[in-house]
Amino acid sequence: MNPVRRRRIQQRVHRPKGRADRPEVISQRGAFIGMRDAGMTMAAISRTTGFNVKTVTKWIRRSDGEGTVATRPRSGRPRLLTPEDDQRIVQAVMDRPLTSTVDITQELNLPCNPETTRRHLNEIRYKCYIPPKKERLTPENKVSRLEFARHYIRDEYDANFWNSVIWTDEKSFMTTAARARLCWRPVNTRFAEENIQQLSEGGRSVSFHGWMWSGGLGDLTRIDGHLNSEKYIQILGTIIPSIRATAIHAPNPIRFFHDKSSIHTSALVRNWFAQHPDIQVIVLPTKGCDVNVLNVWAMMQRTWDIQDERHQAAIVNHATAEWENLRRLPNYCQRLVDSVQTTEYNN
């Protein structure tokens, strides 16, 4: 977290909740004392400030008798946390945003319920959110994404071009997943580096290959075992006839997008595409912009009940059902394709 944001957050700690303790109110009471010390009468102070004579007299007598013009403690349960505790809570969530109030309360040994810790964070405009999950981009990834965007925002790549593109990708679905985590952060800081949960894998998995175009979803193909160049070529040999039959009819060229994984760019795969000149390969950069079927995977994951996926067969059935549900959504793929150019600008 940058120093400016850190200072702003720390300044919000202990912001007075009631009007009687606000700095401007305390300053006004102090002004009564200053005017009295300057020789003004109570009536003159009242006329100058616009406050009632009884109010002026009250705070001058309070200052003379108690040496302060602060509001006295009122009835109600006293605060369990000290100002120092509040500072420790803020420091804890700034150091580790991906944590919970239960963990904060226990680690700091606070004399309160985690709900109290949560309320104190809310008072300084810290809210609890589910963190986004993103892969970390290296400087090289960012440069390649920018170069890709600059190339494909030219005029010749219009709506007709994008509507004739076949988007492909692979995805693995897991039988288990890490426990959902929460993130305490200020508003409008969702994608700050420290607030992002890095992707992790675990458990048994089933991999799939899928393709789509502006007209809809294509085939969802299960990948047996680990994907390699030979298996990828087999998948290509299966889906190209389907693409010709349902999406891009001959003799129109197939504009084929896939990412820059080592399998997609291997010598065997390059040779296969060289033998099929009717397929124009457009390679996405490594960890490229989310402009292809990855958006479909994300939509599938939103409704994914991980507790029901205890076996690989259940994953296959569930993935197939979700794929077919998305296929029935009107204009879903067309909206994804229409957003390509905007996505390229923003990434």
Description of the molecule:
- By secondary structure, this protein is α/β, with parallel strands linked by helices.
- The chain has 3 domains: 3-66; 83-124; 139-179 and 200-346, Nucleotidyltransferase, domain 5 (2-Layer Sandwich), CATH 3.30.420.10.
- Helices cover 46% and strands 13% of the residues.
- It has helices at residues 3-11, 23-37, 42-49, 53-66, 83-95, 101-107, 114-123, 139-152, 159-163, 229-246, 267-274, 294-302, 312-327, 332-338, 340-346, and strands spanning 126-129, 165-174, 183-186, 205-213, 216-223, 254-258, 279-283.
- It has a 5-stranded mixed sheet, with helices on both faces.
- Helix 2 packs across helix 4, helix 3 (42-49) crosses helix 4 and helix 6 packs across helix 7 (114-123).
- The chain is elongated, with a radius of gyration of 31 Å.
- 19% of the residues are buried.
- Residues 12-16 have low confidence and may be disordered.
Computed over alpha carbons, the radius of gyration is 31 Å
- Which fold name is given in CATH as the topology of the largest domain? Nucleotidyltransferase, domain 5
Task: Determine the mean pLDDT.
Answer: 81
Number of strands: 7
Beta-strand percentage? Answer: 5-15%
List SSEs in N-to-C order.
HHHHHHHEHHEEEEHEHEHHHH
Class by SSE composition = alpha/beta
Q: In the residues, how many domains can be counted?
A: 3
SS element count, helices:
15
Which CATH architecture of the largest domain?
Answer: 2-Layer Sandwich
The CATH superfamily of the largest domain is known as: Ribonuclease H-like superfamily/Ribonuclease H
Separation of the first and last Cα atoms: 22 Å
User: How is the main sheet built?
Assistant: 5 strands, mixed
